[in-house]
Amino acid sequence: AELGCCCFCSILYIGNEKFISENPEKVRAFMRAVKKATDFVLADPHQAWKEYVDFKPVMNSQLNWKIFERSYAYFSQDLKNVERDWDKVTKYGQRLGVLSPDFKPNYTNEFLGWGLEPDSA
């Protein structure tokens, strides 16, 4: 994609430390909602697309369908991110200059309250 980095398929949800530390149950509830939506997309992608474009008609184009169709196959079923992808995201952000060279990542799977798949190689 001409991004200058190896591809990675993790979706990162970003929250500030204050909110996360003061609202862990809200963060868990948000992640449960994301998991429910992900499960729905993976179980019935055509229906998920139909409901999405019903809600957001401007997105209903052949190109957007192709993007959706080619993307959902890469969704992490358990939403877990792995160290390898976090390292890639951090290094890419540092290379772009949006993260300082001394940035200390604080990624976590702590708020995923269901069984997780083992890390892939």
Automatic annotation (TrEMBL):
It catalyses: N(6)-(pyridoxal phosphate)-L-lysyl-[4-amino-5-hydroxymethyl-2-methylpyrimidine phosphate synthase] + L-histidyl-[4-amino-5-hydroxymethyl-2-methylpyrimidine phosphate synthase] + 2 Fe(3+) + 4 H2O = L-lysyl-[4-amino-5-hydroxymethyl-2-methylpyrimidine phosphate synthase] + (2S)-2-amino-5-hydroxy-4-oxopentanoyl-[4-amino-5-hydroxymethyl-2-methylpyrimidine phosphate synthase] + 4-amino-2-methyl-5-(phosphooxymethyl)pyrimidine + 3-oxopropanoate + 2 Fe(2+) + 2 H(+). Keywords: Iron, Metal-binding, Pyridoxal phosphate, Thiamine biosynthesis, Transferase. The keyword Metal-binding applies. Pfam families: NMT1 (PF09084). Residues 1-48 form the SsuA/THI5-like domain. The keyword Amino-acid biosynthesis does not apply. InterPro entries: NMT1/THI5 (IPR027939), SsuA/THI5 (IPR015168). One of its GO terms (biological process) is thiamine biosynthetic process. Pathway: Cofactor biosynthesis; thiamine diphosphate biosynthesis. Belongs to the NMT1/THI5 family. Responsible for the formation of the pyrimidine heterocycle in the thiamine biosynthesis pathway. Catalyzes the formation of hydroxymethylpyrimidine phosphate (HMP-P) from histidine and pyridoxal phosphate (PLP). The protein uses PLP and the active site histidine to form HMP-P, generating an inactive enzyme. The enzyme can only undergo a single turnover, which suggests it is a suicide enzyme. This is Thiamine pyrimidine synthase. It comes from Photinus pyralis (Common eastern firefly). The lineage of its organism: Eukaryota, Metazoa, Ecdysozoa, Arthropoda, Hexapoda.
